[in-house]
Amino acid sequence: MPHDPYKALYLHMPFCVKRCGYCDFATSAVAREDLRIDEYVECMVLDIRKASKEGKLGDIETIYLGGGTPTHIGASRLSSLLYGLSVSCDLTKDGLEFTMEANPESLDERLVRDVWALGVNRLSIGVQSFDDEVLGVLGRAHDAQSAREAVEAAHDRFENVSVDLMCGIPGQSDESFAESVREAVRLGVTHVSVYPLSIEPHTPFDQLVLANLMEEPDDDAEAAQMELAAGLLADAGYSRYEVASYAKPGYECRHNIAYWTGVPYLGIGLSAATMTQNESRRMRVTDGEVTDDLDRAQMEAEDLMLGMRLARGVSDERLAEASKHLPDAVQEIESLAADGYLAHEGGRWRPTKQGWLCGNDLFGRLLDLA
Ligand code: SF4
């Protein structure tokens, strides 16, 4: 179908040094020397060149190289990939945001300098915790000290460095979690993402829970730790611009905001979703299979839902536009406000603290409008 141009590009690198116990991402534990990684990188470069020739990369404003663990493939392969990308897409374009995910066990100063020189301008480091015991429970391949060193190495070239932290982990006390948040602040990162642990089907953690060898994360304890992070990060000058994302002013992740604001994106690599849309239809395709095919009303409901993930919420104009396709939208928004999930201020409907705490209910009711 004719569709709006892609503004965001996602590249997926599905390799890790080992598999963490909670992970259900599209990735495999593969030794760095394995030739399958070379083949994968070559295919990815060919796919990027093809996308460029088809004119799909001309309007790209944000790029995200995620995984898996992109840094696991090493500096040499990453350089080939980034070089291939640089001849297919203008990486010097004013304002282009180019994020690469990194894990502490495979991020060193040489790699930091190489990827920076080839156009990456934001690093997102999978730290999860600065507590060795907690990292052990998660089955991470790094310890707290190497996480600190990775953030310091990143700062050798990058000013825009994000860390991911996780809460609700079995055995993780509030104090341990709070100390990890404080450590991220002390290290001077510009962005922090905070996720509650969730037990995904068919993961080792799922097996442990089913065998009564691990307790399921407690929703209230997770919510309390999310609030703890919100308080500590607000005190340190980070604003919570999305339910799980905190940034120093000007360092909000534009690629993720593109996902939450209905911007078409192109995915290249295993299990990387591509979203196309025009006036009347939005489609997501993963590995050649249509995973979502939304009509206009469903698009509007999804946009309202995604909008409420963001602190800025949804404007009155946007709601009026959505109402043309969702007759009950205004009534439902008012009902969500009456329940304390939303507040109306400055011409916008914004999620409240309560709304984010009960996110599943809030988001579900908006999706149900279509
Ligand atoms: S490093 Fe990330 S992608 Fe790799 S197994 Fe662990 S959680 Fe999954």
Describe this protein with a few key phrases.
binds iron/sulfur cluster, Arc Repressor Mutant, subunit A, nine-stranded mixed β-sheet, 370 residues, 14 helices, alpha/beta, three-stranded antiparallel β-sheet, pyruvate-formate lyase- activating enzyme
The helix fraction, in percent, is 25-40%
Strand content: 15-25%
CATH third-level topology of the largest domain: pyruvate-formate lyase- activating enzyme
Number of strands: 17
Quickly name the level 1 CATH class of the largest domain. Answer: Alpha Beta
Please explain how this structure is put together.
This protein is an alpha/beta fold and 370 residues long. The protein folds into two domains: 8-258, pyruvate-formate lyase- activating enzyme (Alpha-Beta Horseshoe); 296-367, Arc Repressor Mutant, subunit A (Orthogonal Bundle), CATH 1.10.10. The chain is 40% helix and 22% strand. The chain contains 14 helices and 17 strands. The protein has helices spanning 35-53, 74-86, 109-117, 132-138, 144-154, 174-186, 204-210, 219-235, 254-260, 296-307, 316-323, 329-338, 353-357, 359-367; strands at 8-13, 15-16, 28-29, 62-67, 97-102, 122-128, 161-167, 191-196, 239-242, 245-247, 265-268, 273-277, 281-286, 289-295, 314-315, 342-345, 348-351. It has a nine-stranded mixed sheet, with helices on both faces. It has a three-stranded antiparallel sheet with strand order 12-13-14. Strands 15-17-16 form a three-stranded antiparallel sheet. Strand 7 (161-167), helix 6 and strand 8 form a beta-alpha-beta unit. The radius of gyration is 21 Å and the shape is globular. The protein binds iron/sulfur cluster. Iron/sulfur cluster is lined by residues 16, 19-20, 23, 25, 27, 67-69, 103, 126.
